[in-house]
């Protein structure tokens, strides 16, 4: 297994790799999925159902079936409040929104669509659900987010958020998945549907101002006074995503020195620089995809970007350029728990098993409890909802946190808030987050980390997900005694869908992706780049043996 960097990586996207939008949309409408082909069935990963209409994995039949299944799930659970729905700027998101509304309206569901057809970030949907449900015991709201996150322009995604506002747990997604596939197998005979024009005018379809509701509430979680008084000069690149029109109102409302680098929306995302593998991917943690903002780093005190649905963040500093997500998350946790006294002593720190162990060291020094869970933000929703977690994060730059007063903000990932917090940190600390990371690692040790990816078949992914500690024959890892071998997360005992081996100064984890046809190996060393390479080499041998 090797991660080969494409010669296009970091360069402007050539015409030859741009998606044919007309072809993409035609395939969405015309393709009839074959339920006997696994790749064409509805399949919910860690972030909903994803795929492309060009290979039959995301099309109109999928969305009609999933939407009907969600209607039936809501009815079976007595969920009869409004359903908040939002969509990002991917080409497939608008037709998927139209398909969903046709079914939701025909089933009599009260649907809250975005005012004026504005794009809607994932956190704005979660925020809307939670604000509506506050103080209610009945008539609770839930939501749908239509996005494949940062994935390439030919992708579509569809995610259900139940009444807690966060990503649906596996018991819900499996129910929806099974029912949707049964509906497809039955030729959609049991799917209720009306024409889109009729659905849009239905009495159950109402507009909701997601943008201003979200923006007006940000003062409850960000200290804008300190940012404004310090005169922090900020830049933001929305990467053509769902929050593209949110940033100017944020700057205007809170009187910030914030420049929006670009407000271009293009379903081909032709303005992007190409990611590591030669694909266009709106990943704010990728140095290849973030070339535009990295090139502007010296023009701002701090700059930031978000992915297409604005649930991930990337922070660019003068001192260090684009920060790795693990580095910024460590600084953010250290800062927040020293500057949010109303969170109280019980607010733990949540992280996934593949997020940096530097956070473990930060949490220990803070005297806080660490809550370590499998990959998937759904594991943090309950804790963020009831205040047991002050902060939850994953290594792919996804995070959310409590309001100043310790109450819930969002139970899904929010990219805008961690991005803005980089300015609050810079203002209050007098140093940018890159400088603070250097200070932090000088005190607690510097991590060296890498992640490798390789193509994997469904059978290989299934095999890897069932790896057990017994299959690890060695008691040594890169010259150190293995202290722990985990196939379950320490925080909640849930299966991690792979394996993690931990030594005193390093660890590795191997797991299949929940949304792509790949597997991933993560490793981190607190010694050196050479030690990191040894960790990756040994992890690769273990994975190769398991897949042989």
From TrEMBL:
Matches recorded under PROSITE patterns: PGM_PMM
Entry annotated with the keyword Phosphoprotein: yes
Alpha-D-phosphohexomutase C-terminal domain boundaries: 488-538
Signal sequence, start to end: none
Keywords: Isomerase, Magnesium, Metal-binding, Phosphoprotein
EC nos: 5.4.2.2
Segments forming domain Alpha-D-phosphohexomutase alpha/beta/alpha: 42-182, 213-317, 325-439
Pfam families: PGM_PMM_I, PGM_PMM_II, PGM_PMM_III, PGM_PMM_IV
Keyword Plastid assigned: no
GO biological process: carbohydrate metabolic process; purine ribonucleoside salvage
GO molecular function: magnesium ion binding; phosphoglucomutase activity; phosphopentomutase activity
InterPro entries: A-D-PHexomutase_a/b/a-I, A-D-PHexomutase_a/b/a-I/II/III, A-D-PHexomutase_a/b/a-II, A-D-PHexomutase_a/b/a-III, A-D-PHexomutase_C, A-D-PHexomutase_C_sf, A-D-PHexomutase_CS, PGM_a-D-Glc-sp
Cofactor requirement: Mg(2+)
Sequence similarity: Belongs to the phosphohexose mutase family.
PANTHER family: PHOSPHOGLUCOMUTASE 2B-RELATED, PHOSPHOMANNOMUTASE 45A
Protein name as catalogued: Phosphoglucomutase
Organism: Rhodanobacter spathiphylli B39
């Amino acid at each position: 297994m090797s991660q080969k960097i494409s010669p296009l990586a970091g360069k402007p996207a050539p015409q030859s790799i741009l998606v044919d939008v007309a072809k993409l949309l035609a395939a969405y409408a015309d393709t009839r999925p074959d339920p006997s082909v696994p790749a064409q069935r509805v399949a919910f990963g860690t972030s909903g159902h994803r795929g492309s209409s060009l290979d039959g994995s995301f099309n109109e039949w999928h969305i009609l079936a999933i939407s009907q299944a969600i209607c039936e799930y809501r009815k079976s659970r007595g969920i009869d409040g409004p359903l908040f729905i939002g969509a990002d700027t991917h080409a497939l998101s608008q037709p998927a929104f139209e398909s969903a509304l046709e079914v939701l309206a025909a089933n009599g569901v009260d649907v809250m669509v975005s005012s004026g057809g504005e794009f809607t970030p994932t956190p704005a949907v979660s925020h809307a659900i939670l604000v509506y449900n506050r103080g209610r015991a009945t008539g609770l709201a839930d939501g749908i987010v239509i996005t494949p996150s940062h994935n390439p322009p030919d992708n579509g995604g569809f995610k259900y958020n139940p009444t807690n506002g966060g990503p649906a747990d596996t018991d819900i997604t499996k129910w929806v998945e099974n029912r949707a596939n049964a509906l497809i197998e039955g030729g959609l005979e049991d799917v209720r549907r009306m024409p889109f024009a009729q659905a849009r005018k239905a009495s159950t379809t109402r507009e909701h101002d997601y943008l201003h509701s979200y923006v007006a509430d940000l003062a409850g979680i960000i200290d804008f006074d300190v940012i404004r008084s310090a005169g922090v000069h900020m830049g933001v690149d929305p990467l053509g995503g769902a929050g593209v029109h949110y940033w100017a109102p944020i700057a205007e409302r809170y009187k910030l020195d914030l420049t929006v680098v670009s407000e271009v929306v293009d379903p081909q995302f032709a303005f992007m620089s190409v990611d590591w593998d030669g694909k266009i991917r709106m990943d704010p943690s990728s140095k290849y995809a973030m070339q535009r903002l990295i090139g502007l780093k010296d023009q701002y005190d701090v700059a930031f970007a978000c992915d297409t649905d604005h649930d991930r963040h990337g922070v660019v500093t003068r001192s260090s350029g684009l920060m790795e997500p693990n580095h910024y998350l460590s600084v953010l946790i250290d800062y927040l728990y020293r500057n949010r006294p109303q969170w109280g002593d019980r607010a733990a720190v949540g992280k996934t098993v593949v997020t940096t162990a530097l956070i473990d060291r930060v949490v220990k020094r803070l005297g806080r409890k660490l809550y370590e869970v499998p990959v998937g933000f759904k594991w943090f929703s309950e804790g963020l909802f009831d205040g047991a977690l002050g902060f939850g994060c994953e290594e792919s730059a996804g995070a959310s946190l409590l309001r100043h007063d310790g109450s819930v903000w969002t139970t899904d990932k929010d990219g805008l808030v961690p991005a803005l917090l980089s300015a609050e940190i810079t203002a209050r600390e007098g140093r940018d987050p890159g400088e603070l990371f250097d200070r932090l690692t000088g005190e607690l040790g510097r991590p060296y980390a890498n992640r490798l990816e390789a193509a994997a078949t469904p059978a290989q992914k299934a095999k890897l997900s069932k790896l057990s500690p017994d299959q690890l024959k060695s008691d040594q890892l890169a010259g150190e005694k293995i202290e722990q071998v985990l196939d379950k997360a320490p925080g909640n005992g849930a299966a991690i869908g792979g394996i993690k081996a931990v030594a005193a100064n390093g660890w590795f984890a191997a797991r299949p992706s929940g949304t792509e046809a790949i597997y991933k190996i993560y490793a981190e060393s607190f010694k050196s780049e050479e030690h990191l390479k040894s960790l990756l080499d040994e992890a690769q041998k273990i994975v190769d043996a398991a897949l042989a």
